[in-house]
């Protein structure tokens, strides 16, 4: 019986742990939207969010995109982003990491994809 009680007490903490690991969007400055155009240096198409490293004039940005399943559902498959491509993103800079941006949309060629 004590083991069962212990499991009941610990269950909420075990379930909440993955959610706590996910960063909130409050870390980004929504009052300061930025639009960046540059060349993709690297792509990471993995959970929890796809990410590109975008080389712009004077800086390389780590651009946080949507989760891979959302990217695919909205028309950007895994091979839709490749190093060497030129893209434009609009998003919000991170409050502490000056080279990080959370993207709201991405333009690949003529296609604009909403990410949130």
Helices, strands, pairings?
Layout: H1 2-21, E1 34-44, E2 51-56, E3 59-64, H2 68-73, E4 86-93, E5 100-108, E6 111-114
Parallel strand pairs: 3-5
Antiparallel strand pairs: 1-2, 1-4, 2-3, 4-5, 5-6
Can you describe what's shown?
There is one protein chain. The protein is an alpha+beta fold and 116 residues long. The chain is built from two helices and six strands, in the order αβββαβββ. A five-stranded mixed barrel has the order 1-2-3-5-4. It starts with a helix and ends with a strand.
What is this entry, summarized?
By secondary structure, the chain is an alpha+beta fold. 22% of the residues lie in helices and 38% in strands. Strands 1-2-3-5-4 form a 5-stranded mixed barrel.
Q: Can you count the helices?
A: 2
Derived structural class:
alpha+beta
Give average pLDDT, whole number. Answer: 86
Rg over CA atoms: 18 Å
Helix content: 10-25%
Q: What proportion strand?
A: 35-45%
The shape is: globular
Major pleated sheet: 5 strands, mixed, barrel
| Topology, number of strands | 6
Measured distance between first and last alpha carbons? 46 Å
- The oligomerization state is single chain
Instruction: Tell me the strand order in the biggest sheet.
Output: 1-2-3-5-4
Unreliable residue stretches: 10-22
Helix and strand succession? HEEEHEEE
Task: Output the keywords.
2 helices; 116 residues; 5-stranded mixed barrel; alpha+beta; single chain
